Amino acid sequence: MPRSPARSLPRLLITLLTTVSLSALLTGPAAPAAGPGRTTTETTVVIEGFEFVPASVTIHAGDSVRWVNKDNDEHTSTSDEPGWDSGIIPPGSTFTQVFGTPGTFGYHCDLHSSLTGKVVVE
């Protein structure tokens, strides 16, 4: 016997809400909004000559940093503490990380230990 559409609708809504809720849990918290009167910005760090240029950047919570690999070698942007790991950034590629929490975050290249940098989030 076929189900009536009226009985299927509540089941469909429950399934949809469950899927949306699980999706939100799996993707983690969103970065905080920029706040009144302020927009988010993206700061670029270039990887070139086996250096992060600039080596230190200061941004606001909710902003992002984009690493651009202009070297001929692969690099990573990896947080010194648990935080983020870009994985391999091939030459000519980029990696972007949003910073939602104030603090000072040291990072390095997993492939080249002398390559280090710092992100200060206000």
CATH class of the domain at 42-121: Mainly Beta
Strand order of the biggest β-sheet: 2-1-4-6
State the helicity in percent bands: 10-25%
Query: What portion of the residues fall into strands of 2 or more residues?
Result: 35-45%
Mean of pLDDT: 82
- Total helical elements: 1
> What is the CA–CA distance across the termini?
62 Å
Rg measurement, Å: 21 Å
Predict the CATH topology of the domain at 42-121: Immunoglobulin-like
Which regions are unreliable across 5 or more consecutive residues at pLDDT < 50? Answer: 12-33
Largest sheet: 4 strands, mixed
Number of strands: 8
* CATH homologous group name of the domain at 42-121: Cupredoxins -  blue copper proteins
The best one-word shape is: globular
CATH architecture of the domain at 42-121: Sandwich
H and E order: HEEEEEEEE
Structural category is alpha/beta
Oligomer description: single chain
